Amino acid sequence: MALLTTILLLWSITIAATTAPVKSLQQLLADADADVPRPPSYTPLPPSLDPWYRAPTTYDWTLTDPGTVLKIRRAPLLNLTVGNALLAYQLLYRSTDSSYNPSWDVTTLFIPRWQARCSASTPALCAHALLSYQLPYDTCNVDASPSFGLHFGEPYGEIADALGLGWFVAVPDYEGPLASYAAGVQAGHATLDGVRAVLQVAGFFGLRMDRAKVALWGYSGGALASEWAAELSVQYAPKMKLAGVALGGLTPNVTSVTEYLNRREGAGLIPQGLMGIATQHPDAYRWIVSRLKPAFRARFLSVRQMTAAQAIGAFMYQDIYGYFVGGYRDLHTRVMQMMYNVDGYMGYHGVPRMPLFIYNAIHDELSDIRDVDELVDRFCGVGANILYHRNTVGTHTQELINGRGRGFVWLRSVLDGSYDSIYSSMGCTIQNVTYNLAPWVGWG
Ligand SMILES: *[C@@H]1O[C@H](CO)[C@@H](O)[C@H](O)[C@H]1NC(C)=O
Ligand SMILES: *[C@@H]1O[C@H](CO)[C@@H](O)[C@H](O)[C@H]1NC(C)=O
Ligand SMILES: *[C@@H]1O[C@H](CO)[C@@H](O)[C@H](O)[C@H]1NC(C)=O
Fold first, then answer.
1. Which one of 141, 152, 350, 437 has the largest count of C-beta atoms within 10 Å of its C-beta?
2. The pLDDT of residue 438
3. Cβ-contact 340, 255 below 8 angstroms
4. How confident is the model at residue 439 (pLDDT cuts 50, 70, 90)?
5. Which residues form the signal peptide (predicted)?
6. Does the predicted TM-score (pTM) go above 0.90?
């Protein structure tokens, strides 16, 4: 694969300008390529057991800039379990948690099969788009992080489709090392720093850094991470240029989602969300555990070992407030509200500067469409550029499928630069639409 010299030059300058880790990027990559575990004897370990999922100990990584690549390794099986991938690498990078303390996250970078044709003499065949795809993993179990879970295949086929379009695709474990499901600030930072990290190495794989465009995409839990990245970027990554962000099935208000889900099919997402968001708020975590009825405590806490689908199965239609000594009130004390205020309400941290495509089922049963309407109004009132599709048919899970095609068409326009000629690049366009493509699909 071609190494474009101009890009190399650029990167050496960037590296020199930041607090240099002990190893240069070139060296980290060379080490990763020299030390590829050989399938089939190689079995990936879940993050809780894999020592690679630790920050470096040989230097003070907390002094590096957010997005600095701290570790790189090849993921030699992911190009088999995810379609259209030539190679896959994993990067461990410096980020910032919900309390604005240094932390780290992991992202998986997929290089599209098409990139095999890219060389210094055929620059026109080299990729010029990066999609950061936030997978909805919706669990406070770190072993369900995508960097590990993708070894069992991808749930929705969207990574393979994006790679099939010739895009580089990065899939961050945006919940971080504590699996902080539903913690907005953590997820937004992890997503933005994942892009920064990938952009540091993508040039080595022939991504056309001179014209590369970057977009974010996520549905449901993935939209949570993407939306927080979009609104936090103004402050946290002011120099990062994002061409656009596509958001489906939004959950703008964590407390309203909790009320909506209780006693419903997806009630199991409440214990997942509470335990996840509270990993960023130790006082609230201790409070939650202390208020669980002793007879139910172990059952409630067992979500930390479950995937989203398992939790949905285990808690279906249950009254989650009933697990608490003080019921509903226990989830709305001061310590809990402080947590929600920091990590649970979209729309208060900044106005996205890049175009947004938002698609949502009007009859979404996980999140009230009125919360999404309100978020859109709030952003539109202060100059955002949004195309908002309210689908008259379908449930939350169906809209994932109903919206996918429109998501791809929109993302392609922002990534290939045709956006302005197809969509309105000023103000907001709000439409009631009817797309009914999805078969009935249940949870999981
Ligand atoms: C997957 O990647 C490995 C190296 O990590 C490579 O040896 C193998 O040929 C790749 N497989 C495919 C199908 O591209
Ligand atoms: C979130 O939803 C709750 C419950 O519906 C509501 O009382 C609260 O005002 C909402 N908060 C924000 C910030 O929109
Ligand atoms: C969409 O439909 C709702 C009724 O469900 C209506 O109140 C609203 O005005 C419509 N919006 C547009 C943009 O047509």
1. 141
2. 73
3. yes
4. low
5. 1-16
6. yes
